[in-house]
């Protein structure tokens, strides 16, 4: 069982409305005990509507059971509405002539949806493509043209190729199922009689091209239908319709050619999506919300705050919660022992540095809820140093 805690802060002087993803139950996850604050005042098929006053915070908390695929929870057949939705041309996944032509070329001679989807996966994990973050334009056409993008761009292009040949497909926005802000995106395609099958082309590319440790092809292939690592899905597909009350939110305009506005630092509050320059929180993407990971903020007066992005979340397991508790106790013990160590140690400066390192490590451990071997070894060495000082 994973504990997901998410929150977002309205830093501005304007009210903020949120579309917050309604975490789905899937063949690989079950959501229980979900609470939302403040309480939603409305909902759509995919999201709750929440209003956050200036200076206040919205939050969500859920227990998510991440499990192995349960065949009985698959959807072997789609409704007509689902099939229409997941084969449609959209802004980020356009079924343009260039997309259709490339999909047809890659699928030449193949017949079944699985064979075709596998050909698309093999193309995206090849040397002809390159994973890069931050990405420039996040649309499928830009990804096919530039052959470089992040996890979302990889997923968009895979979905676009599938839809171009009539195979229902969708993106999945979510997170790795441990740690803080481990955002990720992948894809799914549908096979009649079987259901939705997952594909992670960006992680497949990273697995295939990392230099150390060397990975065999079978490990790369796990990213097709049998995904490595535990994940939590926030939402399915991109470009969710705005509710009627927010239909007046302006549409984003065209971006400059070769625009590269995303950056690791100094983000200006905009993103380039399918050739459009989207001001995050103040504009829509052709009248739709770009995507829910897990929420999209909207300032109706257009006074968007660039500090507000996806919010912040933490996914904890029973093990990481235990690690955090031990971290608190060790930090408290180190602080309590500090005066005695300084007094008794032959080298007080070394004692202070050693204890300070222990406390700093424990603060990091508490904040990140991660388990790593090297820092643990360092911690044990420092504790040994403290014990030696106490015994001599």
UniProtKB/TrEMBL annotation:
Residues annotated as domain Transglutaminase-like: 143-203
Give the top-rank taxon of the lineage listed in the UniProt record for this protein.
Bacteria
Q: Where are the transmembrane segments?
A: 322-342, 348-365, 372-391
Is Translocase among this UniProt entry's keywords? no
Q: Which InterPro entries match?
A: Papain-like_cys_pep_sf, Transglutaminase-like
Protein's UniProt keywords contain Transcription: no
Which keywords belong to this entry?
Membrane, Transmembrane, Transmembrane helix
Task: Spell out the PANTHER family in the cross-references.
Answer: BLR5614 PROTEIN-RELATED, CONSERVED INTEGRAL MEMBRANE PROTEIN
The entry's protein name is Transglutaminase domain-containing protein
